[in-house]
Amino acid sequence: MKILRRGREVPLEDRLQALGSAAELAEGRLDGSVVAEARKVVSRAGVRGSLSVDHTVVALAGATGSGKSSLFNVFAGSSLSPVGVTRPTTSKARAALWDPDGSGPLLDWLDVPRRHSMGSGDNPLSGLILLDLPDHDSIELSHRQEVDRLVAVVDLLVWVLDPQKYADAAIHDRYLRPLARHKDVTVIVLNQIDRLPEQAIKRCLDDLVRLLAQDGLDGVPVLGTSARTGQGLTELRGMLTQKVARRRAWSARLSADVVTAADTLAAAANLTPRSGTDSVDRLTKPLADALAQAAGVPLVVEAVAKAHRHRAIMATGWPITRWLRKFRPDPLRRFHLTPSSGSSPNDVWVAGRSSLPSPTAVQRSQLDTAIRQIGSDVATGVPEPWAAVVRHAARSRTDDLADTLDRAVATTSLGVSKRPHWWRAVGLLQWLLFAIMIAGALWLLAYFGLSYLQLPEASAPTIGRLPWPTALLLGGAITGLLVALLSRLAAWLGGRHRAHKANKALQTSVTEVGERLVLTPAQEELTRFQNFTKAINKASG
User: Three-state SS string across 5-64, please?
Assistant: First the structure.
């Protein structure tokens, strides 16, 4: 797959680093063999760059009977490599070296033990290491493995074809087509043209060019040669001399390898030039609502309102009803949502499990749907298979969700322990009214006792026609009840206000849990994909 490249070319070192980063980011997300191949390219490039860059390794590759060994001998000026016609004769790569000083470590890395020095000094081919490879179609598996190994690492490839088998699908499918990115380090030679009629040579060369274009190798140099007559060898020698003199074939080869590996990674990830997506910055409302329902937030909010009213009545109600109210359980205490002893006005709740009921099947289904939707939303624009990884990341920590939500609810400051100042004032007023009522009752009881004991009766002071003891008794009771009713109305309004604040605090807590356990893992995977895309584009130059 081709990735769009704009601007000036990125230095090879930076592209290698980017390819390594892309392989690391793709680990466990893409096909392991593709990732391993990208890592091999980075490793191979590091080794090749540390070896002699003054030498250019050129490999003659081809099928049995193509004449590559004959070409090798022509360049070497002697019969260094045995020549065969119908069966493979080269079992191990053979090297001819021009100015070999410093080439030892490079040839050791290439594992080419058969080396022949062509001398040192002023020579147009100085720095050339010419390899004669085994036949790629050899009946011997070890021969084919040797070809595959060296084709992957040499600096420049010269493919030697013959008029009879130049269209063989084996070489085009297995070797030439995968080298579509290696045009700068590939040369195609149609050898043995002396066996063709003069008018057939151009026709064969044109047909070969057409086949190469289908392989993605349009523009690659194509030469017709004959090792026997020497036809075309001057052009081939001149081309090799030019490339060797530049001392850049090794870096061009590595650049092509990096681009090929990057394209393969991109293809495995189904990347396109516009792949990628904007990150999701916050939790969507359906997930927040589903989390709140699953965490029992509505139950807690209702309990906060009831608890506020309960405590308000305990503080401001008629003393007799206050005593009776003590026998009712605190609504929050039923859920084990009780403030720690000595808690501050901001009441940090005791950490631990609450006794809120577990989510119902419907709530669990709604939560699962919301989580899946978040995964799909984050993965929008991310191609498969990475989109599946993003969706899985959204669900990767859902096993911890229930306990974490419960702890979040249990430790959220609900703001219910702070007592309004008016409660104390009204409470004192109620005790005063209760005392007045008791005083009136005792006064009346005293009159009743005097009458019961048949003692002289005393006249009670009056307010108009109403005796003061009766006025105190009735006034204290009625006023106390009226203050209690007004306090209950104020407590109801205060309960609604505190429930609203508690709801906001709980929604914030459960939303944070959702972001941490659902959204963040998905976004981290999305960021990983976006970094992978950037690295691929950079590696591609």
Answer: CCCCCCCHHHHHHHHHHHHHHHCCCCCHHHHHHHHHHHHHHHHHHHCCCCCEEEEEEECC
CA dist 19 and 262 (Å) reads 7
Judged against a pLDDT cut of 90, whether residue 198 lies above it is answered with no
Residues 16 and 138 in one domain: no
Distance CA 199, CA 179 (A): 30
CA separation for the pair 268, 248 (Å, rounded): 30
Residue range of the domain that includes 234: 56-247
Residue 283 scores a pLDDT above 70: no
User: What is the pTM (predicted TM-score) of this model?
Assistant: 0.76
C-alpha to C-alpha distance for 162 and 227, rounded to whole angstroms: 12
Q: Residue 274 domain-assigned? A: no
Q: Rounded CA gap, 469 and 466, in Å?
A: 9
Distance CA 89, CA 362 (A): 75
Cα 329–chain centre separation:
49
What is the rounded CA–CA span in Å between residue 333 and residue 310? 12
Same domain, 235 and 320: no
SS (H, E, C) 394-456: HHCCHHHHHHHHHHHHHHCCCCCCCCCHHHHHHHHHHHHHHHHHHHHHHHHHHHHHHHHCCCC
Tens digit of each residue's pLDDT (9 = 90 or more) over 400-429: 888 888 787 777 777 666 778 888 888 898
Structure tokens at 426: 């009204």
**Are residues 316 and 382 located together in one domain of the fold?**
yes
Query: Which tokens hold the place of 24?
Result: 């690391």
In this prediction, residue 32 carries a pLDDT of 93
Residues above pLDDT 70, as percent of the chain: 87
Looking at per-residue confidence, does 447 or 186 come out higher? 186
Please give, one letter per residue, the 3-state secondary structure of 100-164.
Answer: CCCCHHHHHHHCCCEEEECCCCCCCCCCEEEEECCCCCCCCHHHHHHHHHHHCCCCEEEEEECCC
Q: What mean pLDDT is predicted for residues 258-266?
A: 93
Average pLDDT, the chain: 83
Residues 187 and 332 placed together within one structural domain of the fold: no
Length of the chain: 541
Query: Hunting for tokens 């070797």 — which residue is that?
Result: 175
CA neighbor of 226 nearest in space, from 201, 207, 206, 244: 201
| Two tokens, residue 329 | 């359980």
**Tokens 């906001």 — which residue?**
504
61 and 17, same structural domain? no
Same domain (yes/no): 240, 139:
yes
Please report which confidence band the pLDDT of residue 355 belongs to, taking 50, 70 and 90 as the band edges: low
Query: Considering the domain boundaries, does residue 347 fall inside one?
Result: no
Question: Which two three-digit tokens encode residue 6?
Answer: 């704009």
pLDDT level of residue 348 (50, 70, 90 thresholds): very low
Instruction: Provide the token pair at 42.
Output: 């980075």
Query: Does the pLDDT value for residue 223 go beyond 90?
Result: yes
CA–chain centroid gap for 291, Å, is 24
